[in-house]
Amino acid sequence: MLFDLKGKRKRLVQVVYLGLAILFGGGLVLFGVGGNTSGGLIDAFKGGGGSSSSDSAFQDIIVKAERRAARNPQDPEARLAVVRAQFNLAASPAGSDAQTGALSDKGQQAIIEVTQNWERYLKLHPKKIDPSGATSAALAYGALQEYGKAVKAQKASVKERPSANGYFQLADFSYRAGDVAAGDAAAKEAVRRTPSDQRNTVRSLIKDLKKQGRQVVKAVAAQKKAQKKAGKQGEPGTNFGPLPGQGAAGQGSAAP
After folding, report:
1. Partners of 96 in the beta sheet?
2. How far apart are CA 32 and CA 213, in angstroms?
3. Is the residue at 237 inside a domain?
4. N or C end of the chain, less CB within 10 A?
5. Sign of the CA dihedral 192, 35, 60, 44?
6. Signed CA dihedral, 92, 93, 97, 98: sign only
7. Whole-number percent of the chain with pLDDT over 70
8. Which of 150, 147, 180 has the alpha carbon at shortest distance from 166?
9. Quick one: average pLDDT of 35-46?
10. What is the residue-averaged pLDDT of the chain?
11. Contact present, 154 and 138 (Cβ < 8 Å)
């Protein structure tokens, strides 16, 4: 994990995103992307315990999706099904800890698979980018702390399905990527799309995000410096943060 926020700050971040989930009515990402599945981010906040049977169910869905994609290598929808299945595993109790957001070994692999399959999906040139899939990819890139790619994926999501929560998520990733101007623009749009009686709440949340974004930028810079120094002795490993929307440094649980 690149950095860790503790105590009151950790609780604040959890409240920020769970509050937004309630404020905007939730969405596909919150309840399990792409269908009637369990293991979404709301389940994680509830701390719902996993079981071997539920783990097996997620794995079965992944296997079926991957087989479908193998049979139909030029079908974007088949590849998108793999993105959804892998993300749901990462967001399930088997993939990430409900309290800290830390990814398990299975969750880490699933997150990598989400981003790889998303990129393969894009190479198939779908006629229309799937907004929920784009948000899943953005959250996965966020867990990998690749915030520039997270911004790009989230932009694709809000382009196809604009929403207050979607723009809020875009603002968050933009701040974390160090693009304050883009973050401010997305934040302004998030506020504009919010019901008038809730805008002050959202403005306050955005203020917190902006502050956290500055902290992330500094942490990322420090990590890169450390990796550059360590690179003389060997290749650094992949850095995983918590799955966005969970734990200490969760980015958010935007409803696409």
Report:
1. 103
2. 26
3. no
4. N
5. positive
6. positive
7. 70
8. 150
9. 37
10. 77
11. yes
Query: Does 234 reside within a domain?
Result: no
129 C-beta neighbours (distance < 10 Å), count = 18
Is 249 among the domain residues?
no
What pLDDT band is residue 243 in, cutting at 50, 70 and 90? low
Is residue 249 a contact partner of residue 13, using CB atoms and an 8 Å limit? yes
| Residues in a beta bridge with 103 | 96
Q: What's the domain range around 66?
A: 7-226
- The yes-or-no verdict on residue 139 having pLDDT over 60 is yes
Query: Which token pair is 64?
Result: 């079926």
Reply yes or no on whether the pLDDT at 231 is more than 90: no
Identify the residue with better confidence: 44 or 144: 144
Phi, psi of 170 (to 5 degrees): -65, -40
Q: How far from chain centre, in Å, is Cα 255?
A: 11
Alpha helices in the chain, H assignment, sequence order: 7-23, 28-31, 41-46, 52-71, 76-91, 105-123, 131-143, 147-160, 164-176, 180-192, 199-230
Domain assignment present for residue 106? The answer is yes
User: What is the domain count for the chain?
Assistant: 1
Which amino acid is it at 25?
G
Residue 128 has pLDDT above 60, yes or no: yes
Alpha carbons 73 and 4: distance in angstroms, whole number: 40
Summarised one tens digit per residue, pLDDT across range 65-107 is: 999 999 999 999 999 999 999 999 988 888 888 777 788 899 9
The CATH number given to whatever domain includes residue 139 is: 1.25.40.10
C-alpha separations of 178 from 41, 161, 251 in Å: 26, 24, 14
The full 3-state SS of 138-190, as one line of letters, equals: HHHHHHCCCHHHHHHHHHHHHHHCCCHHHHHHHHHHHHHCCCHHHHHHHHHHH
